[in-house]
Amino acid sequence: MNHLMILSWVTFAYFASFVLYLFKMIFGKEFWGRAASFLAWTGLAVQTIALILRWKASYDLGIGHVPLSNLFESIVFFAWAIILIYLIVEWRTKNKTIGVFVVPLAFLAMAYASISPDINNRIEPLVPALQSNWLTSHVVTCFMGYAAFTVAFGCGLLYLLKNMENGNKEKPFGFLGKLPSLAMLDALIYQNAALGFVFLTIGIMTGSIWAHYAWGSYWSWDPKETWSLITWLIYAIMLHSRYVRGWRGKRLAVLAIIGFACVLFTYLGVNYLPGLHSYLK
Questions:
Q1: The domain containing residue 201 runs over which residues?
Q2: What is the per-residue pLDDT across 75-92, written as a single tens digit (0 to 9) for each?
C-alpha cells in the first residue's frame, strides 16, 4: 500500500473521529469520546508513517527532500499538526468534546488535498528557491503556528456558542453544558493564540533568512509575505489587548475567528496571486 492510499484512509479516520466526538458531545457517553480519541491518535500515527514513506519515496526517485515542498504536502502536514496540537489540548483539559470544532478542520484539509483538481500530489524535484535547509524550519514553524491558530479558532467558535446559550433562557443548545467552562475556553483561546504567535514569528524570521538566500532580499513585499505580516499583526493586537487592556471572552473569540480567516487567506488565497511564492501549488 503506497503513502497516498494510506493518506486516503487517514482522511476517513479523521471524519469518523469527528462523528464520534459529535456523538460524545450530544449523548455524553464516555464510550464515544474514547473511540473518537483512539481514531484521532491512530490517524495521527498512521499519517506520520505515510509522511515518512513519502519522504523515503522521494529518495528512491533520486530527488530526496522533506515532504513539505508543495501545496499537497503542506496541506497534509497542516492537518497532521492540527491533530497533534488538538490531542495535546485534549490530554491537558481531559475534555474530548472540543474535537467537534477542531478535528473536522483536519478532515477538510485532508479531503481538499485528496480531491482538488488544482493540487498536484506527485513527488517532483525542488525548484532552486526551495533547495535550502531553511525550507524545513520555515515550513514546520509556520504550519505549527497555523495549527495552533486553528485550535484557537475552534475554541473561539465554541465560546461564542456557549456564551449565546448562557444568555438564552430556553437553552436551545443544552448539550453545550457538557463542554469546558467559558473561563477555560477563554484560557485555551489565549494559550493557543500565544503558541501560534511564537511559531509564526519564528516562521517569518526563518522565511526572511531563506528569502535572502534564495532571492537576495530579506523582504520583498510579496503577497504571501505581506499577508503573513497582516496575520502576525492581528494576533499581536489580540495578545496585546489581552495583556494590556484585559480583553477576554467574546472579544478574544471574535479576534481568534478573524485571525484564522487571515491565516486561510495567507495560506491558500494568495497562492493564486502572482508573486515569489506562486510555485507553491
A1: 129-281
A2: 999 999 999 999 999 999
